[in-house]
Protein backbone atom coordinates (compact mmCIF):
# COMPACT_ATOMS: atom_id res chain seq x y z
CA UNK A 1 0.00 0.00 0.00
CA UNK A 2 1.14 3.45 -0.78
CA UNK A 3 3.93 2.09 -2.92
CA UNK A 4 6.26 4.44 -4.72
CA UNK A 5 9.68 4.76 -6.33
CA UNK A 6 9.83 1.25 -7.69
CA UNK A 7 12.17 0.02 -10.39
CA UNK A 8 12.17 -3.04 -12.60
CA UNK A 9 14.86 -5.32 -13.96
CA UNK A 10 17.73 -3.61 -15.85
CA UNK A 11 16.22 -4.14 -19.25
CA UNK A 12 16.39 -2.04 -22.36
CA UNK A 13 13.51 -3.23 -24.53
CA UNK A 14 13.93 -2.48 -28.20
CA UNK A 15 10.15 -2.32 -28.48
CA UNK A 16 8.00 -1.67 -25.43
CA UNK A 17 5.25 -4.11 -26.16
CA UNK A 18 5.05 -5.82 -22.79
CA UNK A 19 2.56 -3.22 -21.63
CA UNK A 20 0.92 -2.65 -24.98
CA UNK A 21 -1.85 -4.14 -27.00
CA UNK A 22 0.43 -6.96 -28.12
CA UNK A 23 1.25 -8.04 -24.59
CA UNK A 24 0.46 -11.51 -23.42
CA UNK A 25 -2.99 -11.06 -21.92
CA UNK A 26 -2.21 -13.58 -19.23
CA UNK A 27 0.65 -11.49 -17.87
CA UNK A 28 -0.38 -7.84 -17.80
CA UNK A 29 -1.67 -6.24 -14.64
CA UNK A 30 -2.87 -8.19 -11.64
CA UNK A 31 -4.30 -11.71 -11.55
CA UNK A 32 -7.20 -12.97 -13.65
CA UNK A 33 -8.10 -15.62 -11.08
CA UNK A 34 -7.88 -15.65 -7.28
CA UNK A 35 -6.35 -18.51 -5.33
CA UNK A 36 -7.21 -19.16 -1.69
CA UNK A 37 -3.98 -17.65 -0.37
CA UNK A 38 -4.50 -14.41 -2.31
CA UNK A 39 -8.10 -14.18 -1.13
CA UNK A 40 -7.06 -14.79 2.48
CA UNK A 41 -4.39 -12.07 2.19
CA UNK A 42 -6.92 -9.63 0.73
CA UNK A 43 -9.45 -10.31 3.48
CA UNK A 44 -6.78 -9.95 6.15
CA UNK A 45 -5.64 -6.56 4.82
CA UNK A 46 -9.17 -5.25 4.36
CA UNK A 47 -10.03 -6.26 7.92
CA UNK A 48 -6.86 -5.38 9.78
CA UNK A 49 -4.90 -2.69 7.89
CA UNK A 50 -7.18 0.13 9.14
CA UNK A 51 -6.93 -1.28 12.68
CA UNK A 52 -3.12 -1.42 12.41
CA UNK A 53 -2.98 2.27 11.47
CA UNK A 54 -5.33 3.19 14.31
CA UNK A 55 -3.38 1.06 16.80
CA UNK A 56 -0.05 2.72 15.96
CA UNK A 57 -1.45 6.25 16.18
CA UNK A 58 -3.45 5.46 19.33
CA UNK A 59 -0.43 3.90 21.05
CA UNK A 60 1.46 7.17 20.63
CA UNK A 61 -1.48 9.31 21.69
CA UNK A 62 -2.27 7.29 24.81
CA UNK A 63 0.82 5.17 25.62
CA UNK A 64 3.87 7.22 24.57
CA UNK A 65 4.30 4.98 21.48
CA UNK A 66 4.73 1.78 23.51
CA UNK A 67 3.22 -0.87 21.21
CA UNK A 68 2.93 -3.70 23.72
CA UNK A 69 1.51 -1.78 26.70
CA UNK A 70 -2.09 -1.50 25.36
CA UNK A 71 -2.20 -5.25 24.74
CA UNK A 72 -0.77 -6.02 28.18
CA UNK A 73 -3.22 -3.62 29.85
CA UNK A 74 -6.13 -5.25 28.04
CA UNK A 75 -4.88 -8.73 28.89
CA UNK A 76 -4.42 -7.91 32.58
CA UNK A 77 -7.78 -6.17 32.82
CA UNK A 78 -6.18 -2.84 33.71
CA UNK A 79 -8.10 -1.24 30.86
CA UNK A 80 -10.97 -2.03 28.51
CA UNK A 81 -11.41 -1.48 24.79
CA UNK A 82 -14.13 1.02 25.62
CA UNK A 83 -11.64 2.99 27.74
CA UNK A 84 -9.20 3.25 24.84
CA UNK A 85 -11.94 4.24 22.42
CA UNK A 86 -13.40 6.84 24.79
CA UNK A 87 -9.98 8.53 24.98
CA UNK A 88 -9.69 8.62 21.19
CA UNK A 89 -10.50 12.00 19.60
CA UNK A 90 -13.49 11.81 17.29
CA UNK A 91 -14.11 13.43 13.93
CA UNK A 92 -14.35 17.22 14.23
CA UNK A 93 -15.57 19.94 11.88
CA UNK A 94 -12.18 21.59 12.22
CA UNK A 95 -10.47 18.48 10.84
CA UNK A 96 -13.07 18.13 8.07
CA UNK A 97 -12.48 21.72 6.94
CA UNK A 98 -8.71 21.31 7.07
CA UNK A 99 -8.84 18.09 5.05
CA UNK A 100 -11.27 19.39 2.44
CA UNK A 101 -9.15 22.52 2.01
CA UNK A 102 -6.00 20.40 1.71
CA UNK A 103 -7.31 17.96 -0.91
CA UNK A 104 -9.04 20.73 -2.87
CA UNK A 105 -5.82 22.75 -2.96
CA UNK A 106 -3.87 19.77 -4.27
CA UNK A 107 -6.53 19.12 -6.95
CA UNK A 108 -6.24 22.79 -7.95
CA UNK A 109 -2.44 22.56 -8.22
CA UNK A 110 -2.68 19.28 -10.15
CA UNK A 111 -5.41 20.24 -12.59
CA UNK A 112 -5.21 23.99 -13.13
CA UNK A 113 -1.54 24.97 -12.95
CA UNK A 114 0.45 23.64 -15.93
CA UNK A 115 4.05 22.92 -15.05
CA UNK A 116 6.66 25.63 -15.59
CA UNK A 117 9.46 24.01 -13.57
CA UNK A 118 10.68 22.06 -16.63
CA UNK A 119 11.30 25.41 -18.34
CA UNK A 120 13.30 26.77 -15.41
CA UNK A 121 15.19 23.79 -13.96
CA UNK A 122 17.87 22.12 -16.15
CA UNK A 123 17.51 18.36 -16.27
CA UNK A 124 13.99 18.27 -14.88
CA UNK A 125 11.35 16.56 -17.04
CA UNK A 126 7.92 17.94 -16.33
CA UNK A 127 4.94 19.18 -18.26
CA UNK A 128 3.00 16.90 -20.58
CA UNK A 129 4.57 13.44 -20.68
CA UNK A 130 3.61 10.12 -22.27
CA UNK A 131 2.99 7.12 -20.09
CA UNK A 132 3.59 3.50 -21.06
CA UNK A 133 1.19 1.88 -23.52
CA UNK A 134 -1.71 0.18 -21.76
CA UNK A 135 -2.92 -3.34 -22.66
CA UNK A 136 -5.69 -1.73 -24.73
CA UNK A 137 -3.05 0.02 -26.82
CA UNK A 138 -3.61 3.46 -25.28
CA UNK A 139 -0.74 5.82 -24.45
CA UNK A 140 -2.03 8.15 -21.76
CA UNK A 141 -0.68 11.65 -21.45
CA UNK A 142 0.08 13.10 -18.02
CA UNK A 143 0.58 16.63 -16.74
CA UNK A 144 3.68 16.07 -14.62
CA UNK A 145 3.69 18.94 -12.14
CA UNK A 146 4.30 17.26 -8.79
CA UNK A 147 7.53 19.14 -8.08
CA UNK A 148 5.78 22.44 -8.78
CA UNK A 149 2.91 21.49 -6.47
CA UNK A 150 5.34 20.49 -3.72
CA UNK A 151 7.30 23.74 -4.05
CA UNK A 152 4.21 25.97 -4.02
CA UNK A 153 2.75 24.11 -1.04
CA UNK A 154 5.93 24.39 1.00
CA UNK A 155 6.59 28.02 0.08
CA UNK A 156 3.12 28.84 1.38
CA UNK A 157 3.72 26.73 4.49
CA UNK A 158 6.91 28.60 5.41
CA UNK A 159 5.38 31.96 4.47
CA UNK A 160 2.57 31.23 6.92
CA UNK A 161 4.91 30.00 9.64
CA UNK A 162 7.24 33.01 9.51
CA UNK A 163 5.00 35.84 8.33
CA UNK A 164 1.25 35.46 7.78
CA UNK A 165 0.36 33.25 10.80
CA UNK A 166 -2.92 32.08 9.28
CA UNK A 167 -2.65 28.83 11.24
CA UNK A 168 -0.28 27.17 13.68
CA UNK A 169 2.60 25.10 12.22
CA UNK A 170 1.43 22.36 14.60
CA UNK A 171 -2.01 22.24 12.98
CA UNK A 172 -1.48 18.75 11.52
CA UNK A 173 -0.40 16.95 14.67
CA UNK A 174 -2.90 18.92 16.77
CA UNK A 175 -5.68 17.36 14.66
CA UNK A 176 -3.87 14.11 13.83
CA UNK A 177 -6.49 11.54 14.86
CA UNK A 178 -9.53 13.54 13.62
CA UNK A 179 -7.66 13.90 10.31
CA UNK A 180 -7.23 10.11 10.31
CA UNK A 181 -11.00 9.70 10.12
CA UNK A 182 -11.12 12.18 7.23
CA UNK A 183 -8.38 10.30 5.38
CA UNK A 184 -10.27 7.03 5.85
CA UNK A 185 -13.47 8.57 4.48
CA UNK A 186 -11.62 9.76 1.37
CA UNK A 187 -9.73 6.47 0.97
CA UNK A 188 -12.87 4.33 1.11
CA UNK A 189 -14.86 6.79 -1.00
CA UNK A 190 -12.38 6.94 -3.86
CA UNK A 191 -11.87 3.16 -3.78
CA UNK A 192 -15.61 2.51 -3.92
CA UNK A 193 -16.09 5.11 -6.64
CA UNK A 194 -13.29 3.51 -8.70
CA UNK A 195 -15.01 0.13 -8.50
CA UNK A 196 -18.44 1.50 -9.45
CA UNK A 197 -16.84 3.49 -12.28
CA UNK A 198 -15.14 0.36 -13.62
CA UNK A 199 -18.55 -1.27 -14.07
CA UNK A 200 -20.67 1.67 -15.20
CA UNK A 201 -18.43 4.12 -17.06
CA UNK A 202 -14.87 2.82 -17.46
CA UNK A 203 -12.23 5.01 -19.03
CA UNK A 204 -11.41 2.15 -21.38
CA UNK A 205 -13.34 -1.10 -21.20
CA UNK A 206 -10.36 -3.10 -22.55
CA UNK A 207 -8.13 -1.95 -19.68
CA UNK A 208 -10.08 -3.84 -17.03
CA UNK A 209 -9.71 -7.16 -15.23
CA UNK A 210 -12.50 -9.02 -13.46
CA UNK A 211 -11.97 -12.05 -11.26
CA UNK A 212 -15.56 -12.48 -10.17
CA UNK A 213 -14.45 -12.12 -6.55
CA UNK A 214 -15.82 -8.90 -5.06
CA UNK A 215 -13.21 -8.56 -2.31
CA UNK A 216 -10.22 -9.10 -4.59
CA UNK A 217 -11.56 -6.75 -7.26
CA UNK A 218 -12.34 -4.10 -4.67
CA UNK A 219 -8.90 -4.24 -3.13
CA UNK A 220 -6.67 -4.73 -6.17
CA UNK A 221 -8.78 -2.71 -8.58
CA UNK A 222 -10.51 -3.38 -11.88
CA UNK A 223 -9.56 -0.45 -14.08
CA UNK A 224 -5.97 -0.04 -15.15
CA UNK A 225 -5.96 3.75 -15.50
CA UNK A 226 -9.24 5.25 -14.26
CA UNK A 227 -9.60 8.89 -15.26
CA UNK A 228 -12.12 11.70 -15.10
CA UNK A 229 -11.90 13.87 -18.16
CA UNK A 230 -8.65 14.20 -20.06
CA UNK A 231 -6.20 14.90 -17.25
CA UNK A 232 -7.43 13.74 -13.82
CA UNK A 233 -5.66 10.40 -13.50
CA UNK A 234 -6.50 8.56 -10.27
CA UNK A 235 -3.19 6.72 -10.07
CA UNK A 236 -0.91 9.69 -10.58
CA UNK A 237 -2.89 11.99 -8.29
CA UNK A 238 -3.39 9.65 -5.36
CA UNK A 239 0.05 8.02 -5.58
CA UNK A 240 1.78 11.40 -5.43
CA UNK A 241 -0.75 13.91 -4.22
CA UNK A 242 -2.04 14.49 -1.57
CA UNK A 243 -0.12 11.85 0.46
CA UNK A 244 3.51 12.38 -0.57
CA UNK A 245 3.24 16.17 -0.75
CA UNK A 246 1.88 16.00 2.80
CA UNK A 247 4.73 13.75 3.99
CA UNK A 248 7.21 16.60 4.49
CA UNK A 249 4.53 18.93 5.87
CA UNK A 250 3.62 16.31 8.46
CA UNK A 251 7.27 16.05 9.50
CA UNK A 252 7.53 19.84 9.74
CA UNK A 253 4.44 19.86 11.95
CA UNK A 254 6.08 17.24 14.18
CA UNK A 255 9.21 19.38 14.44
CA UNK A 256 7.13 22.44 15.32
CA UNK A 257 5.34 20.44 18.02
CA UNK A 258 8.63 19.27 19.45
CA UNK A 259 9.80 22.90 19.59
CA UNK A 260 6.54 23.90 21.31
CA UNK A 261 6.74 21.12 23.92
CA UNK A 262 10.46 21.05 24.72
CA UNK A 263 11.79 24.38 23.52
CA UNK A 264 14.06 22.77 20.91
CA UNK A 265 14.13 20.50 17.88
CA UNK A 266 16.38 17.50 18.48
CA UNK A 267 19.08 16.43 16.03
CA UNK A 268 17.21 13.16 15.47
CA UNK A 269 14.09 15.06 14.34
CA UNK A 270 16.23 17.14 11.99
CA UNK A 271 17.82 14.00 10.54
CA UNK A 272 14.41 12.40 9.91
CA UNK A 273 13.13 15.60 8.28
CA UNK A 274 16.20 15.95 6.06
CA UNK A 275 16.45 12.33 4.89
CA UNK A 276 12.74 11.95 4.21
CA UNK A 277 12.62 15.33 2.43
CA UNK A 278 15.37 14.09 0.10
CA UNK A 279 13.25 11.02 -0.57
CA UNK A 280 10.14 13.08 -1.32
CA UNK A 281 11.89 15.65 -3.55
CA UNK A 282 13.57 12.80 -5.44
CA UNK A 283 10.15 11.28 -6.08
CA UNK A 284 8.79 14.47 -7.58
CA UNK A 285 11.98 15.30 -9.49
CA UNK A 286 11.66 11.91 -11.17
CA UNK A 287 7.88 11.88 -11.49
CA UNK A 288 8.07 11.39 -15.26
CA UNK A 289 10.23 8.30 -14.62
CA UNK A 290 7.57 7.10 -12.20
CA UNK A 291 5.19 6.78 -15.16
CA UNK A 292 7.25 3.76 -16.28
CA UNK A 293 7.26 1.93 -12.93
CA UNK A 294 5.25 -1.06 -11.72
CA UNK A 295 2.65 1.15 -10.00
CA UNK A 296 1.60 2.76 -13.27
CA UNK A 297 2.46 -0.04 -15.72
CA UNK A 298 1.04 -3.06 -13.89
CA UNK A 299 -1.08 -2.18 -10.84
CA UNK A 300 -4.78 -1.48 -11.12
CA UNK A 301 -6.45 1.23 -9.06
CA UNK A 302 -8.43 -0.10 -6.15
CA UNK A 303 -8.47 0.03 -2.36
CA UNK A 304 -4.82 -1.05 -2.24
CA UNK A 305 -3.71 2.19 -3.89
CA UNK A 306 -6.69 4.44 -3.09
CA UNK A 307 -6.96 3.83 0.65
CA UNK A 308 -3.27 3.01 0.93
CA UNK A 309 -2.16 6.37 -0.41
CA UNK A 310 -4.72 8.33 1.62
CA UNK A 311 -4.19 6.56 4.96
CA UNK A 312 -1.39 4.01 5.09
CA UNK A 313 1.28 6.20 3.50
CA UNK A 314 0.85 9.49 5.41
CA UNK A 315 0.20 7.81 8.75
CA UNK A 316 2.69 4.94 8.82
CA UNK A 317 5.51 6.38 6.69
CA UNK A 318 5.80 9.29 9.14
CA UNK A 319 5.95 7.23 12.34
CA UNK A 320 9.54 8.25 13.11
CA UNK A 321 8.66 11.93 13.43
CA UNK A 322 5.52 11.12 15.46
CA UNK A 323 7.57 8.95 17.79
CA UNK A 324 10.10 11.74 18.33
CA UNK A 325 7.34 14.12 19.40
CA UNK A 326 6.46 11.82 22.29
CA UNK A 327 9.99 10.48 22.88
CA UNK A 328 12.58 13.13 21.91
CA UNK A 329 15.98 11.55 21.18
CA UNK A 330 19.30 13.40 21.28
CA UNK A 331 21.87 11.45 19.27
CA UNK A 332 25.54 11.73 20.04
CA UNK A 333 27.58 13.43 17.35
CA UNK A 334 29.11 10.14 16.07
CA UNK A 335 25.67 8.48 16.02
CA UNK A 336 24.09 11.43 14.20
CA UNK A 337 26.86 11.52 11.58
CA UNK A 338 26.72 7.74 11.09
CA UNK A 339 22.93 7.80 10.66
CA UNK A 340 23.14 10.63 8.14
CA UNK A 341 25.88 8.84 6.22
CA UNK A 342 23.85 5.63 6.07
CA UNK A 343 20.91 7.60 4.70
CA UNK A 344 23.03 9.48 2.15
CA UNK A 345 24.84 6.34 0.98
CA UNK A 346 21.54 4.49 0.66
CA UNK A 347 20.11 7.33 -1.39
CA UNK A 348 23.23 7.44 -3.59
CA UNK A 349 23.00 3.70 -4.32
CA UNK A 350 19.27 3.96 -5.00
CA UNK A 351 19.58 6.96 -7.30
CA UNK A 352 22.69 5.87 -9.21
CA UNK A 353 21.36 2.34 -9.72
CA UNK A 354 18.22 3.72 -11.30
CA UNK A 355 20.25 6.26 -13.28
CA UNK A 356 22.37 3.47 -14.79
CA UNK A 357 19.23 1.57 -15.80
CA UNK A 358 17.64 4.63 -17.37
CA UNK A 359 20.84 5.55 -19.21
CA UNK A 360 21.20 2.01 -20.52
CA UNK A 361 17.57 1.98 -21.65
CA UNK A 362 17.66 5.39 -23.32
CA UNK A 363 20.82 4.65 -25.29
CA UNK A 364 20.03 0.98 -26.00
CA UNK A 365 23.33 0.08 -24.36
CA UNK A 366 25.45 2.63 -26.26
CA UNK A 367 26.78 4.34 -23.16
CA UNK A 368 29.41 3.96 -20.44
CA UNK A 369 28.76 2.51 -17.00
CA UNK A 370 31.60 2.99 -14.53
CA UNK A 371 33.77 4.16 -17.42
CA UNK A 372 33.19 1.09 -19.58
CA UNK A 373 30.75 0.00 -22.23
CA UNK A 374 28.11 -2.00 -20.36
CA UNK A 375 27.83 -5.74 -20.66
CA UNK A 376 24.41 -7.25 -21.23
CA UNK A 377 22.55 -10.41 -22.11
CA UNK A 378 20.52 -10.48 -25.32
CA UNK A 379 16.98 -11.70 -24.66
CA UNK A 380 13.96 -12.37 -26.81
CA UNK A 381 10.29 -12.95 -26.17
CA UNK A 382 7.18 -13.59 -28.25
CA UNK A 383 4.03 -11.52 -27.81
CA UNK A 384 0.51 -12.89 -28.12
CA UNK A 385 0.31 -11.92 -31.80
CA UNK A 386 3.28 -14.20 -32.57
CA UNK A 387 5.81 -11.41 -33.12
CA UNK A 388 9.30 -11.82 -31.74
CA UNK A 389 10.90 -8.94 -29.85
CA UNK A 390 14.34 -8.37 -28.37
CA UNK A 391 15.61 -6.92 -25.12
CA UNK A 392 18.89 -6.40 -23.32
CA UNK A 393 19.47 -7.20 -19.66
CA UNK A 394 22.41 -5.22 -18.27
CA UNK A 395 24.95 -7.02 -16.09
CA UNK A 396 27.33 -4.09 -15.50
CA UNK A 397 27.66 -1.44 -12.81
CA UNK A 398 25.36 -1.78 -9.84
CA UNK A 399 23.20 -4.14 -11.87
CA UNK A 400 26.09 -6.59 -12.05
CA UNK A 401 26.31 -6.71 -8.24
CA UNK A 402 22.67 -7.59 -7.56
CA UNK A 403 19.45 -7.72 -9.54
CA UNK A 404 17.67 -5.14 -7.37
CA UNK A 405 20.40 -3.05 -5.76
CA UNK A 406 18.12 0.00 -6.05
CA UNK A 407 15.90 -1.69 -3.46
CA UNK A 408 18.96 -2.25 -1.27
CA UNK A 409 19.68 1.48 -1.31
CA UNK A 410 16.04 2.17 -0.50
CA UNK A 411 16.24 -0.15 2.51
CA UNK A 412 19.44 1.51 3.75
CA UNK A 413 17.67 4.86 3.74
CA UNK A 414 14.65 3.35 5.48
CA UNK A 415 16.88 1.90 8.19
CA UNK A 416 18.51 5.31 8.74
CA UNK A 417 15.11 6.88 9.51
CA UNK A 418 14.52 4.23 12.16
CA UNK A 419 17.99 4.38 13.72
CA UNK A 420 17.54 8.12 14.29
CA UNK A 421 14.90 7.18 16.89
CA UNK A 422 17.20 5.12 19.11
CA UNK A 423 16.37 1.70 20.49
CA UNK A 424 13.87 2.22 23.30
CA UNK A 425 10.75 1.22 21.35
CA UNK A 426 9.77 -1.03 18.47
CA UNK A 427 7.29 1.36 16.86
CA UNK A 428 9.70 3.45 14.73
CA UNK A 429 11.19 0.22 13.32
CA UNK A 430 7.89 -0.82 11.78
CA UNK A 431 8.92 1.06 8.65
CA UNK A 432 12.07 -0.95 7.90
CA UNK A 433 10.23 -4.21 8.67
CA UNK A 434 7.38 -3.25 6.34
CA UNK A 435 9.67 -1.99 3.56
CA UNK A 436 11.76 -5.17 3.70
CA UNK A 437 8.65 -7.34 3.27
CA UNK A 438 7.30 -5.03 0.56
CA UNK A 439 10.48 -4.88 -1.52
CA UNK A 440 11.32 -8.58 -1.22
CA UNK A 441 7.79 -9.29 -2.42
CA UNK A 442 8.39 -6.81 -5.24
CA UNK A 443 11.52 -8.71 -6.22
CA UNK A 444 9.61 -11.97 -6.39
CA UNK A 445 6.72 -10.44 -8.37
CA UNK A 446 8.98 -8.77 -10.90
CA UNK A 447 11.21 -11.80 -11.34
CA UNK A 448 8.24 -14.11 -11.80
CA UNK A 449 6.99 -11.80 -14.55
CA UNK A 450 10.44 -11.66 -16.17
CA UNK A 451 10.88 -15.42 -15.95
CA UNK A 452 7.56 -15.95 -17.73
CA UNK A 453 8.51 -13.38 -20.33
CA UNK A 454 12.11 -14.31 -21.12
CA UNK A 455 12.24 -18.02 -20.25
CA UNK A 456 15.72 -19.54 -20.61
CA UNK A 457 17.26 -16.11 -21.22
CA UNK A 458 16.14 -15.04 -17.75
CA UNK A 459 17.77 -18.15 -16.30
CA UNK A 460 21.02 -17.16 -18.00
CA UNK A 461 20.69 -13.68 -16.51
CA UNK A 462 20.11 -14.95 -12.96
CA UNK A 463 23.10 -17.27 -13.31
CA UNK A 464 25.22 -14.26 -14.32
CA UNK A 465 23.84 -12.04 -11.51
CA UNK A 466 22.95 -14.59 -8.82
CA UNK A 467 22.05 -12.22 -5.97
CA UNK A 468 18.84 -10.25 -5.55
CA UNK A 469 19.59 -7.63 -2.89
CA UNK A 470 22.83 -8.30 -1.03
CA UNK A 471 25.89 -9.30 -3.07
CA UNK A 472 27.31 -12.52 -1.69
CA UNK A 473 24.36 -13.11 0.65
CA UNK A 474 20.90 -12.85 -0.92
Automatic annotation (TrEMBL):
Coiled-coil intervals, chain numbering: none
Protein name per UniProt: 7-dehydrocholesterol reductase
CC terms in the record's Gene Ontology section: endoplasmic reticulum membrane
Transmembrane segments: 36-57, 90-113, 176-200, 301-319, 331-350, 414-440
BP terms from Gene Ontology: brassinosteroid biosynthetic process; cholesterol biosynthetic process
Compositional bias (Basic and acidic residues): 1-16
Disordered: annotated segments: 1-21
Annotated membrane topology: Multi-pass membrane protein
Pathway note: Steroid biosynthesis; cholesterol biosynthesis
PANTHER family xref list: 7-DEHYDROCHOLESTEROL REDUCTASE, DELTA(14)-STEROL REDUCTASE
Main localisation: endoplasmic reticulum
Compartments (UniProt record): Endoplasmic reticulum membrane
Catalytic reaction(s) noted: cholesterol + NADP(+) = 7-dehydrocholesterol + NADPH + H(+); 7-dehydrodesmosterol + NADPH + H(+) = desmosterol + NADP(+)
Molecular-function GO terms, alphabetical: 7-dehydrocholesterol reductase activity
Keywords, comma-separated and alphabetical: Cholesterol biosynthesis, Cholesterol metabolism, Endoplasmic reticulum, Lipid biosynthesis, Lipid metabolism, Membrane, NADP, Oxidoreductase, Steroid biosynthesis, Steroid metabolism, Sterol biosynthesis, Sterol metabolism, Transmembrane, Transmembrane helix
Similarity field: Belongs to the ERG4/ERG24 family.
InterPro entries: ERG24_DHCR-like, Sterol_reductase_CS
The UniProt record lists the keyword Endoplasmic reticulum: yes
Species in which this protein is naturally found: Hymenochirus boettgeri (Congo dwarf clawed frog)
Function recorded in the entry: Catalyzes the last step of the cholesterol synthesis pathway, which transforms cholesta-5,7-dien-3beta-ol (7-dehydrocholesterol,7-DHC) into cholesterol by reducing the C7-C8 double bond of its sterol core. Can also metabolize cholesta-5,7,24-trien-3beta-ol (7-dehydrodemosterol, 7-DHD) to desmosterol, which is then metabolized by the Delta(24)-sterol reductase (DHCR24) to cholesterol.
Family annotation (Pfam families): ERG4_ERG24
Enzyme Commission number(s) from the entry: 1.3.1.21
Amino acid sequence: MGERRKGNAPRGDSKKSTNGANANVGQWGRAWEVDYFSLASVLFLLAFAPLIVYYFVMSCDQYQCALTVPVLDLYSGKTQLSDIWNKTPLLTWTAVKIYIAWVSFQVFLYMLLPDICHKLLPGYQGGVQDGAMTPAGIINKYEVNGLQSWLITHILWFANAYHFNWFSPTIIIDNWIPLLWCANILGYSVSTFAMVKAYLFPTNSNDRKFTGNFFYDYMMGIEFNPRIGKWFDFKLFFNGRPGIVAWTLINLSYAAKQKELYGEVTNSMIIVNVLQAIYVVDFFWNESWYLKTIDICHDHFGWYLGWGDCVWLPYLYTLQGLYLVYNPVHLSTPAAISTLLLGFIGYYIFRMTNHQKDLFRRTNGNCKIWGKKPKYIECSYTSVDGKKHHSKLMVSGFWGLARHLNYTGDLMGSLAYCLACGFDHLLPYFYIIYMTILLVHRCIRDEHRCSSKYGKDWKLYTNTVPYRLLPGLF
